[in-house]
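The records we work with from here on pair a chain with its fold. The integers have meaning only within a learned vocabulary of local backbone shapes. A complete example follows; check for yourself that the lines match position by position.

:::
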Amino acid sequence: MANVADAESDVADEEAGAGKKRFNFSRKTLIMAAGGLAALLVVAGGGYFFFAHEETPAVAEQKAIFIPVPEMTVNIANPDSQVPRYLRLKIALEVHDERLVEQVQPMLPRVMDAFQIQLREMRPEDFEGSAALYRLKEELLRRINQAVFPAKVDAVLFNEILIQ
């Protein structure tokens, strides 16, 4: 009878344990779960840093000011042909301070002269492709800053470039 009572108590224990689930986590599973949680926290913190922080006042206050330069038409070098080639150029100069406008405006004739000298030496092939226009922008910016020194122009912006 003891065996029957033991068997009945084993069945009762199994039925009582059926409602409870036991999780047996291995050490490896716990380490991987902790690592995943840590990675999630790092990603969430990075997202907060990049998307939720406020812009610094120094950056927010800087406004671009554009100085229009009179349109220029220049004949460019064309050694392969007897037909003259012309370049029409409209640009604007970008500065970050209103005081620089007052310094650059009186120097525009000097800027135009520097442009004329540079552009007359160029050939039609010198304007092909975006890399060529980028190099031209950088060269014109260098010449402008020499012409208006001690003022400093931040960028040259092309409004129109036409080669005829």
